[in-house]
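Ticket 4471: requesting a sanity check on a complex prediction with D-xylitol-5-phosphate. Repro inputs:
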Amino acid sequence: MKNRIISPSLLSADFSRLKEEIDVVINAGAERLHLDVMDGHFVPNFTFGPFIVEAIRKLTSSHLETHLMISNPHKYIPEFIDAGSDTLIFHYEATTNIDRDINLIKDQKIKVGIALNPDTKIQLIYDYLDALDYVLIMSVHPGFGGQGFIKETLQKMKNLSNLSKKHNFLVGVDGGVNLMTIDEVYNTGIDITIVGSGLYGATSVSNRFNELMSK
Ligand code: DX5
Ligand code: ZN
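Returned structure tokens:
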């Protein structure tokens, strides 16, 4: 069985205690952090932009995966790279030119990922699998933390995990992953789970991290 990789989503962290909220998951063993950028247009919610990514970069040397839930990602990709992202993920549904946006990111020598909404078919990105480092399967409709896991996305996870062996990319799953759902998610063969409310909602975040890793 593969080792579990959990990428804590800071969306559910307490931003007034951000340094502590980062340290608790890093000390528990997290090697990457998931940063959710929302523009109030591609998704019906706002979070933060490159300014905050840059601040988070100063708080940790851990791998930062920045999930852009924004329209016209190409306009902002350079700023999110300069801010210190190690992986930059844009949405299939938001881009106007996939090749251009993949190259904008790869040219800067950081990792590139594409996110797929729950209703978006994985076949649509088959032509790009060799160019991608990461595919993020949304198991909720993006926009908010704490939503219920959409079970119909499990089959997409299985299919993409199989393809990842040949094409060499990581598969991440984002949304509704918690103690109840994490086993069936990892059973599909995926590499990384993003966990927000299922981690930061716990009384002891470090204990919860360990529980999620070992279940
Ligand atoms: C959803 C975001 C997720 C979110 C996950 O729009 O992309 O990263 O923070 O949160 P939970 O784990 O609470 O579903
Ligand atoms: Zn996300």
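Notes from triage: The helical segments are 18-28, 50-59, 77-82, 98-106, 154-167, 182-186, 197-200, 205-214. Leaving this open until the requester confirms.
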